[in-house]
Specification:
The chain is mainly alpha-helical. It contains 9 helices and 2 strands, in the order αααββαααααα. The model has no long low-confidence stretch (mean pLDDT 91).
Length: 248
């Protein structure tokens, strides 16, 4: 992956230098937003790993006397996608008509901001924990914010690549975009290990109180950092948008 990354960065920078000021500026923006894309998906992809284990160990999953499986909590994200996907599409169209549609870097920043707020919901839910089990609404609101953050960033990112890249480099840029997902999932595994159920291989499984402490510490840290990153990207969205030279 590192070799591929070095090759891709070299090609993009070389193309930007040879292509003139406009292409150079657009390449800079793409590399910056691709980096932020890694941050978003590294945290988002905890859904299939640490967040499901969190649901299993420290979430009260009883609804009307029936306990749903930890894996069933994965239902929330696709359900929210189906509910909000069309709404977001209409929203962007309406905002464009009145000239209020946020620029692409702003949408990236707001998406990352919502992701971070989702993890901070875990801290809020911990205040209502009973026997070291947080209420199920903790995951509901976490996945709601993660999904709305995803809708701000994911489809916008794919569109951005095709708009910013020159025709002869569209395939290369899409490759760079999906390479960022490879790095994101690699970092996601590292973050998931930080919430591990055991201290060392072969050690006893942590108690509910111990595991809740670990999850709370890791998720709160992730939330605060990603909120900060999101706010930073929002603040620099205007100068980044200028570097895109009219691409919306």
């Amino acid at each position: 992956m590192y070799a591929a990354l070095a090759y891709v960065i070299y090609n993009l920078i070389s193309a930007g230098i040879k292509g003139g000021n406009i292409l150079r500026d657009r390449m800079i923006v793409m590399l910056i937003l691709i980096t932020f894309n890694v941050v978003f998906w590294a945290c988002f992809e905890q859904a299939g790993s640490s967040l499901t284990l969190f649901a299993d160990r420290n979430v009260n999953r009883v609804i009307f006397g029936y306990e749903i499986g930890a894996g069933t909590t994965q239902f929330f994200n696709p359900a929210f996608i189906m509910i909000f996907g069309s709404i977001f599409s209409l929203m962007w169209v309406k905002l464009s008509k009145i000239g209020k549609n946020p620029n692409i870097p702003m949408k990236f920043g707001l998406g990352i901001l919502q992701l971070g707020l989702g993890y901070l919901v875990v801290f809020l839910g911990s205040q209502f924990a009973h026997e070291y089990l947080v209420p199920l609404w903790t995951l509901v609101f976490l996945y709601l914010l993660h999904t709305t953050g995803e809708l701000f960033l994911s489809p916008i990112g794919l569109s951005m690549i095709t708009k910013l890249a020159p025709k002869e480099m569209t395939g290369t840029m899409m490759g760079a975009w999906f390479l960022s997902f490879a790095f994101a999932n690699w970092f996601a595994a590292i973050l998931a290990k930080a919430t591990g159920a055991t201290a060392e291989a072969g050690a006893e499984v942590l108690s509910k109180s111990e595991s809740l402490t670990v999850y709370l510490d890791v998720y709160t840290t992730m939330g605060l950092i990603t909120v900060g990153i999101g706010l930073f990207l929002v603040l620099i969205s205007k100068p980044l948008n200028k570097l895109m030279h009219g691409v919306e």
